[in-house]
Amino acid sequence: MSYATCDIRNVALAGHPGAGKTTLFEALLHAGGALTTAGTVERGTTVSDFDPMEKARGHSMDIAIASIDPTADGGRSIHLNLIDTPGYPEFRGPALSALAAVETALIVVDADTGVAHGTVRLMERAAERGLCRVIVVNKIDHEQANCARVMEQLREAFGSGVLPLNLPADGGGRVVDCFGASSGDSDLGPVADWHQRILDQVVEVDEGVMEHFLDGGEAGLSPQELHDAFEKSLREGHLVPVCFASARTGVGVKELLHAAQALFPDPTEGNPPQLLRHDGQGEQPLQTDADAGGHVIAEVFKIVNDPFVGKLGVFRVYQGTVRRDTQLFVDEGRKSFKVGHLFRLRGKEHVEVDEAIPGDIAAVAKIDELHFDALLHDSHDEDRVHLAPTRFPRPMFGLAVQAASRGQEQKLALALQKLAEEDPAFLVEHNTEVNETVIRGLSELHLRVMLERLKERFAVEVTTRPPRIAYRETVSARAEGHHRHKKQTGGAGQFGEVFLRIEPLPRGAGFEFADEVKGGTIPGQFMPAVEKGVRQVLHAGAISGHAMQDLRVVVYDGKHHPVDSKEIAFVAAGRKAFLDAVAKARPQVLEPIVDLEVGTPEAQLGDVTGSLATRRARIVGTDAGSDGARGETVVKAQVPMSELDGFAAELKSLTAGKGRYSLDFSHYEPVPPPVQQKLVEAYKPRHEED
After folding, report:
1. Structural domain tally of the chain?
2. How far apart are CA 239 and CA 241, in angstroms?
3. Interstrand relation of 349-352 and 342-346 (parallel, antiparallel or unpaired)
4. Which helix (H) or strand (E) holds 48?
5. What are the tens digits of pLDDT across the range 386-400?
6. What pLDDT score does 626 carry?
7. 184: domain CATH number?
8. Section 610-620 average pLDDT
9. Which residue, among 394, 392, 389, has the nearest Cα to 373 in the 3D structure?
10. What is the mean pLDDT of residues 96-107?
11. Residue 690 located in a structural domain
């Protein structure tokens, strides 16, 4: 290995669909010497989109990783890890997971269309992770490109700290430096004006540098001073640099590569990783020092189930060195595994390497214990360490699935497990009460893709149907319940008596169980049985067959028999006493409410809001947003999940395919009385014999 940690640059390419991320990814690999010829999305020859489904659809559906080792100024070798991420919101799970592995988010913007909804979202997510953000305006050679308008949109959307490192010239035929140079002209005006703006912005972050600049101008700053101030500006979000490029023609690509080498932070210069240690007093931040000789700390940010290599865990090293034959632990596991083979990824290719140093990205294969966000370490001192979790959108779209052919149930279960390992925004749930397996994703398209993968990759075909809406039950008042379970059928009998009370908790609080029995009226060994009975109802529901939440159960009295009291008796008594209390506590059925954002052409705004009104939606606002130049209005509303059936098709019809929407879980709230009555009447509980 010819590079050190200070030579590594970790960069994730992210952006709105169609901005040209994959083409730019390919152009960077070509400019860095990793490819003799850049592939194209149209021909399906890119390093990034190697999956057959990606080639067929013409866009990325998962992240791809590759690295280059270009030579920087002075002959020094730089190791640049690039991660290409999908732009479509359906595949945000893999895209967001990649942000946890890098120091820099390279947000790609289309020069034709400017700042889009996805651009804003990704800039916000990158800021949440404390990443340095750099913007690339791509497609500057297009006839429709308007770089001046895009620059204006960027500064309006993200602040005055958005300033160019280089500028388009000759109608997008070339780019000119405006950070290191102060003369010349560009399509956006004199280079000197922009050069002065970015210098003024950079020196503001450090009083000492500012003083030197005021005293001696640019000549009064040493190169190291300027570099350090630039890095600090990036870390603090005080500066968001912009580069211009055309990935298709190669204009600006080498300049972008040079900027990454010279100005992007290495793992020791970026904001520290958000590692936490649980010490018994809560979670405390853990500082790492990127020491190659220290204990290994690495985090798995991607799982790939490769048909040839097996289960592949892709990880980022934060501290220590991972070598072949290194013994590593997974999370708090007591049994270690030996690194048999260590890989570097290049799209679908796996290149074997000897070691991975702090800051590097590598992969290990055939370790079943690996999972997304697993912490790898070589000392039990790090057992309770983990990376701050990534905030993923909650998968709200669901389909109930079952194997189309008998005998494939086990094969289906294993295939779904593997798909869920690869995409953190894809969930698999099994409702034992109705024996229903439900898959949940971020959209109908997301689920369709997963069903295609089931068929193509695992040869499993399924039948689908709408799942049950994830209603919940709760109570709205305090109440007490009682049940005496007594059974005598000859020989030893069954006896248990339970008194309990229930009370509502704030929405989202979950469930609490408390034992306040005095004097041993219910012996301690039977209290788990009482709780088991309560939890049976909690899981199965009391009035509509849906799980219960947001309540507290307190067992305060009871009776037992020295001979006839058994666990089964107190399970039954606890269950029946709980049902008795619920019936008196004004039970309610809760429905999931989602935050819905709908982007619609202004001409169809009335039609869309009218459609939402028929679906019990509460409009909370409309915003022309940063997409206003394209005539799009964003409608924000809160809607019951049960009312969104068929909304995608209706929106497509109303807007001639130009509408878009996204949703995320908000909260639960009581259903209207007619809906509750209908759900209660439809519920036919199984009457179990006591």
Report:
1. 5
2. 6
3. antiparallel
4. none
5. 888 888 887 878 889
6. 46
7. 3.40.50.300
8. 93
9. 389
10. 94
11. no
What b/e readout covers 14-49, taking b as 16+ CB neighbours within 10 angstroms?
bbbbbbbbbbbbbbbbbbbebbeebbebeeeebbbb
Other Cβ atoms closer than 10 A to 638: 18
Is pLDDT of 384 > 90? no
Q: How many CB atoms lie within 10 A of CB 419?
A: 21
Structural tokens at position 128: 């949440």
Token pair 């912005």 in the structure block, residue:
201
Q: What is the DSSP letter of 71?
A: B
% of the chain beyond a pLDDT of 90: 56
Cβ contact 73:3 at 8 Å: no
Q: What is the mean pLDDT of residues 65-78?
A: 79
164/152 Cα distance (integer angstroms): 11
Task: Compute the mean pLDDT over every residue in the chain, rounded to the nearest whole number.
Answer: 89
DSSP of 495-550? EEEEEEEEEE--TT--EEEEE---TTSS-GGGHHHHHHHHHHHHHH-SSSSS-B-S
Q: Find out whether 633 and 599 touch, Cβ atoms under 8 Å.
A: yes
Asked whether residue 613 is domain-assigned, the answer is yes
Is the Cβ–Cβ distance between 378 and 327 less than 8 Å?
A: yes
- Kindly report, residue by residue over 493-504, the tens digit of the pLDDT: 889 999 999 999
Q: How many Å is the Cα radius of gyration of the chain?
A: 29
- 508 and 485 co-located in one domain: yes
- What pLDDT digit, counting tens, does each position of 621-679 carry? 988 754 444 567 889 999 998 898 888 888 888 988 778 787 788 899 999 999 999 99
* Average pLDDT of span 131-157: 94
CA–CA gap between residue 11 and residue 653 (Å, rounded): 39
Pairing mode of beta strands 355-356, 322-323:
antiparallel
Q: Are residues 324 and 179 in the same domain?
A: no
Q: List pLDDT tens digits, range 169-183.
A: 999 999 999 998 888
- Model pLDDT for residues 317-370, shown as the tens digit of each residue: 999 999 998 999 999 888 899 998 899 998 888 899 999 999 999 999 988 899
Give the C-alpha separation, 625 to 118, whole Å: 12
Coil, helix or strand at residue 307: coil
Q: Domain span at residue 455?
A: 397-468
Measure the CA–CA gap between 415 and 421, rounded to whole angstroms.
Answer: 10
Predicted confidence (pLDDT) at residue 688 exceeds the cutoff of 60? no
Contacts of 555 (CB under 8 A, 6+ apart): 498, 499, 500, 513, 514, 515, 516, 517, 522, 527, 530, 574
687 occurs within a structural domain: no
Last residue of a domain, one of 344, 367, 387: 387
Q: What is the pLDDT of residue 80?
A: 94
DSSP state, residue 246: B
- In this structure, which amino acid lies at residue 123? M
Q: List C-alpha distances in Å: 98 to 120, 237, 246, 364.
A: 17, 20, 24, 17
pLDDT at 432: 66
Ordered DSSP codes for 422-474: H-TT-EEEEETTTTEEEEEESSHHHHHHHHHHHHHHH---EEEEPPPP--EEE
What is d(CA 395, CA 379) in angstroms, rounded to the nearest whole number? 35
